[in-house]
Amino acid sequence: MGKLDNILKEYGVSRREFLKYCTALSGTLALSPAFAPKIAEAIEDDNRPPVIWLEFQDCAGDSESLLRANRPTVAELVLDYLSIDYHETIMAAAGHQAEAARDETVKKYKNKYICVVEGSIPTADDGIYCCIGGRSAVDILKEVGGNAAFVIAVGTCAAYGGLPAAYPNPTGAKSVKEILGNKTVINLPGCPMNVDNLTATVVHYLLFGAPPALDKFLRPKFAYGKRIHDNCERRAHFDAGQFVEKWGDEGHRQGWCLYKMGCKGPETFHNCPTVRWNEGLSWPVMAGHGCVGCSEPGFWDTMTPIYRRLPNIPGFGVEATATKIGTTIVGISAVVFGVHGIVTAIRNRGLVRKVENEFEDNE
Amino acid sequence: MKNNDNIKCAAKRYIYVWEAPVRISHWLNFLCIITLSITGYYIHNPFIHASDIIETTYIMGMMRYLHYLVGVIFAFSVMLRLFWLFVGNRYASWHSFSNPFRKEDRKTFFAYIKYYTFLEKNPPHTLGHNPVALVAYIVLFNLFILQIITGFALWAQADPNSTLYALTSWVFSIASNQWVRFFHYLMMFLIAGFVINHLYSAILFDFKTQSGEISSIFSGWKPERNS
């Protein structure tokens, strides 16, 4: 029983609530509930690593997600207690003091602290588009990320470049993995990431001493191993062929499938339908809006248009849909071969006559 | 290449051109493409409103099931035809591809191009595929292969721990999920465009060369002609 126990007491979180939280986490991690006591032990253990939270080209949405960790409220406390030594948005220190705190942690806990990165990293023009304390983002990330135990890229920007890296990408924005090629990077994409997944990832590390199993896009499998579509509460309506045709129509009020409204659930791997948001209250599709696929690589470039099923083709105008282009191809070929047929028929009139005459001659 | 010449039907001076596997594969492809196009279009745009027809239904589920099942049959059919490229007779074999380094082949090829563009009236007679059509078929089969790969890759996403996903997920390192869907859908229209061409050309040559273009894909036999 370490300091955490006191903190929990101070915040009015009972032992029972804390253990409930540990059980919920074991569920998020797809572990057996038998792991809950072990998780509690791991969280209470005093060897928890400090965290440096870096922010680059971001909207602070993931910080916001962190601050609103509220299911149960202990999540925030746990992450607080993880001693976030450096977090520009929420730290008390400022200026040189803040930089000094960061440098100290890097030195003191070399290869032991966790580096969390939010936002993409600009590389164009020597990275001048994002400088902190006179140093470029690339520079800071290489130093802080390079000396960390491992790096967690939170949010789609840090994981894949996100909005800043969308076409035409004026700042040359890159993802964390692209900068730290050899480092262990865990991507927790999402716009913003779901803090439960961050907590679970950290707890997995505390519990097993290793990052969770990752997929080919470096996302933890426990959180990104299944499609939204396959866990969606509207899925039965999809299979039954019951679709929302217009916002606010009868089907929409009945909670039918949003597939035809451009929902990207079938293209998106995330545990939104099971973990959900705001104390597990709801998530976008439950609230009646289609998934926009915010946690997929190339989100801004390939998941748009948000209210259509397929991307537009660049160079064919904004409104050119795949169906229009496809039917044009078929139409053109029908016209070409139709014309060819007419010309051939005219050209072959002589041949027909000849064959007919031969036929008559033979009779 | 089987060179011991064509099996001839002595009485009628007919030649056995299309062997059974070629015909089976052809008609399987035909049926599969029709089914896949209809179900695939439905999956893209579910135009039948379930509640309009019956009360309880599983219509999208059925369409998807059919699409996957026929997709598997189609994959085997295409594999059969590709296999026959190596073991089939001279008309089905890859040996019938034009060799651009052979003057004779180039001449035949351009004679057909000229015929198609009305610059020439009588192209040289070929018993198997004509060389221009053959190019179209090579392109078509490449489209088939792309459709099969992208189709199975999209299907495998239902379970990223599956063997199928392990085999096909490399597709998504080349193009994102959305673009794979896009191309899988657009290629259907390219194939539909080909079908129009294919039907027209078959009728055209059936008429022009009087060599049973249409009937031979049912029977396998073509009348012997020299010119």
From TrEMBL, chain A:
- Which Pfam families does this UniProt record tie to the protein? NiFe_hyd_SSU_C, Oxidored_q6
Annotated Cytochrome-c3 hydrogenase C-terminal domain ranges read 224-307
One GO term in the molecular function aspect is:
metal ion binding
Positions binding [3Fe-4S] cluster in this chain are: 272, 291, 294
What is its cofactor? [3Fe-4S] cluster; [4Fe-4S] cluster
Q: Where does [4Fe-4S] cluster 2 bind?
A: 229, 232, 257, 263
Indicate the segments forming the NADH:ubiquinone oxidoreductase-like 20kDa subunit domain, all copies.
Answer: 59-204
> PROSITE patterns under this entry?
TAT
Q: Which InterPro entries match?
A: Cytochrome-c3_hydrogenase_C, NADH_UbQ_OxRdtase-like_20kDa, NiFe-Hase_small_C_sf, NiFe_Hase_small_N_sf, NiFe_hydrogenase_ssu, TAT_signal, TAT_signal_bac_arc
Listed GO biological process terms: anaerobic respiration
> What keywords sit in the KW lines?
3Fe-4S, 4Fe-4S, Iron, Iron-sulfur, Metal-binding, Oxidoreductase, Signal
Where can this protein be found? Cell envelope
Q: Which residues bind [4Fe-4S] cluster 1?
A: 59, 157, 191
Gene Ontology CC terms: [Ni-Fe] hydrogenase complex; cell envelope; ferredoxin hydrogenase complex; membrane
Q: What family does the database annotate?
A: Belongs to the [NiFe]/[NiFeSe] hydrogenase small subunit family.
Subunit details? Heterodimer of a large and a small subunit.
Q: What is this protein called?
A: Hydrogenase small subunit
Q: Which organism is it from?
A: Deferribacter autotrophicus
From TrEMBL, chain B:
Matching SUPFAM superfamilies: Transmembrane di-heme cytochromes
Membrane protein topology class: Multi-pass membrane protein
Protein's cellular compartments: Cell membrane
Q: Does the keyword Transmembrane helix apply?
A: yes
Gene Ontology biological process terms in this record: respiratory electron transport chain
**Which residue windows are transmembrane per the record?**
24-44, 65-87, 134-156, 186-205
- Describe the location of the Cytochrome b561 bacterial/Ni-hydrogenase domain by residue ranges: 17-220
| Keywords of the record | Cell membrane, Electron transport, Heme, Iron, Membrane, Metal-binding, Transmembrane, Transmembrane helix, Transport
UniProt key word Nucleus: no
Any one GO MF term held by the record is: heme binding
Kindly give the Pfam families that the UniProt entry links to this protein: Ni_hydr_CYTB (PF01292)
What NCBIfam families is this protein classified in?
CytB-hydogenase
Protein name, UniProt field: Ni/Fe-hydrogenase, b-type cytochrome subunit
